[in-house]
Specification:
By secondary structure, this protein is of the alpha/beta class. Helix content is 43%, strand content 20%. The chain is flat and about 115 Å long.
Length: 525
């Protein structure tokens, strides 16, 4: 396979409302594994579509050397009705069928070039990944999200393309499938652009490219190298911010000294004018000069202050948000040894049918692991009391909080302040705003409808509504809360959960997230 490049030449993207997402992007992606990262809303998926050729830039050009195959985030059945369509071979199979019936159409034969074995290759590949019960004509509406993702990725591996563009390919995949995806990425011989927040997958990249409103920043190496480099950058940014603040204090002290000197000179001139024999005309002229000098000094100092404030604001903007320190209710703390949860031979209403035994005491933290469909979410709902047990005994001895990946979507018209008030009517609005500010939700964002907020902001508010409830939970149940969160939001969630001193049970497919929240054990279904 020839080494090829994908070129961005002064590429810009503006939304229909005129808002600019990015502008003047210039970069050459070399034929290796590149991770494209950035906060949600910066336009990563749109840039991926431009690289794939399915979307044109507002300005600039994308030059492609070689064929490009893309797997998008949205794999809905209305767009991909069959397995063949999801695997990207429906047109090839249709052309082969027409040729078998006698078609001599040049377009059909062009599609069939080097693809005469497409049908048996697809069948063999489906069998190899454990989906041998599917055929090319199988409807995708009957497939789970994980199965649709696996079939779409299968199409990428079978594509023989020079370039793959994979947008959040680990969505809906369990941990075992994520490991297999990483192995496939390692084996891919061509160019690859991975748009992802999955730190495990990003470890398999040869370089990381970060998209932000400022443009593209290139970091050679995998995620660990990127994170270490970013940490060094942040230390430099923090030092620069401290330096600007120290400089501002020095300038402020110097300004006070200059003003006092000017005032003493003016006072001395006034005394000399009173004691001397100068005419009133001369005295007035001297007074006017003094006032002009003092006014000019004030103006220069004001201009210097504004410039200094601008430099401080720019330095602060480069710094990552500080860790939010929460002030949690004492009632959420679980003493060591207290029995929190007891499951004796519990059988779930559906999913996993094997009896489950679990004892949770004190502020224990556990993960629930297992393949898709094994009953992880069902078990959480049983523990929360949302579903009944099919058999066995379940005992709860504390208030329980619930948080999942859809947090905040059920009431899109509700503001953050309203949300906290509904969870705790005893909480004054000023205190609610303070609690939200501690979690990084400022005053302006706190009064917006939640539909106007990012997924990370909604999750922070949902967590605040649980932790500051009238009866705060001593057991927090988390069902894939990190889904759809960008890297900064995932890290912020980890920092907040590590301040919680109650018990915790979490379902997640993100191994980096699970490692960061300091688990005490795991239950595998």
């Amino acid at each position: 396979m020839t080494q090829r490049l994908l070129h961005l030449d002064h590429v810009a993207c503006s939304l229909p409302d005129g808002r600019s997402l990015f502008d003047n992007l210039n970069h050459a992606f070399s034929a290796r594994a590149t991770g494209l990262v950035g906060a949600n809303g910066t336009g990563k998926s749109l840039l991926g579509a431009m690289l794939a050729g399915t979307l044109q830039p507002t300005r600039g050009h994308v030059r492609r050397e070689g064929s490009v195959y893309a797997v998008t985030q949205l794999l809905e059945p209305e767009h991909y009705p069959s397995v063949a369509a999801l695997a990207g071979v429906d047109q090839v199979l249709a052309a082969l069928a027409r040729i078998a019936e006698g078609s001599v159409d040049e377009h059909d034969h062009a599609l069939a070039v080097d693809q005469w074995d497409c049908a048996p290759r697809l069948a063999a590949a489906l069998e190899q990944i454990g989906l041998g019960h599917l055929t090319a004509d199988s409807p995708t509406a009957a497939l789970s999200g994980g199965e649709r993702q696996r079939v779409a990725l299968l199409g990428a591996w079978l594509s023989r393309a020079d370039w793959l563009i994979l947008d959040e390919p680990s969505n809906h995949l369990d941990i075992d499938q994520q490991h297999k995806l990483a192995q496939q990425i390692d084996r891919w011989p061509g160019g690859l652009v991975l748009i992802s927040h999955d730190r495990g997958l990003l470890e398999h990249m040869d370089e990381i490219v970060e998209l932000s409103p400022k443009g593209l920043a290139v970091y050679g190496g995998n995620y660990s190298h990127y994170a270490a480099t970013r940490e060094q950058e942040q230390q430099a940014f923090q030092s620069a911010l401290q330096g600007e603040r120290a400089h501002a204090k020095r300038e402020q002290r110097e300004a006070v000294i200059q003003m006092e000197r000017q005032q003493r000179r003016n006072a001395r001139g006034d005394r000399q004018a009173r004691d001397g024999n100068q005419t009133k005309l001369i005295t007035n002229a001297q007074k006017e000069r003094s006032e002009n000098s003092q006014g000019k000094l004030r103006l220069n100092q004001q201009l210097a202050r504004e410039q200094q404030q601008q430099r401080i604001a720019e330095a602060r903007a480069r710094c990552a948000p500080e860790i939010q320190r929460m002030m949690l209710w004492p009632e959420s703390v679980v003493p060591q040894g207290k029995l929190v949860l007891q499951l004796n031979e519990v059988v779930l209403p559906f999913g996993n049918r094997a009896p489950i035994n679990l004892t949770l005491t004190g502020p224990m933290r556990m993960s629930i692991l297992g393949a898709n469909g094994s009953g992880k979410s069902t078990l959480l709902r049983v523990i929360a009391g949302q579903l009944p047990v099919a058999a066995g005994e379940l005992a709860r001895s504390c208030h329980i909080g619930w948080l999942d990946q859809h947090a905040g979507l059920e009431h899109p018209e509700r503001t953050a302040v309203q949300w906290l008030y509904e969870s705790n009517p005893l909480l004054a609005e000023s205190e609610a705003r303070t609690r939200l500010a501690q979690m990084g939700i400022d005053a302006d964002r706190a009064v917006l409808d939640t539909r106007q907020l990012s997924g990370g902001e909604r999750l922070k508010i949902a967590l605040a509504a649980q932790l500051y409830a009238e009866h705060p939970p001593q057991l927090l149940l988390l069902d894939e809360p990190d889904n759809h969160l960008d890297l900064p939001s995932r890290i912020a969630l980890e920092q907040m959960l590590n301040q919680y001193q109650g018990a915790l049970i979490v379902v997640s497919h993100d191994e980096a997230f699970l490692q960061a929240i300091n688990l005490d054990g795991e239950l595998r279904l």
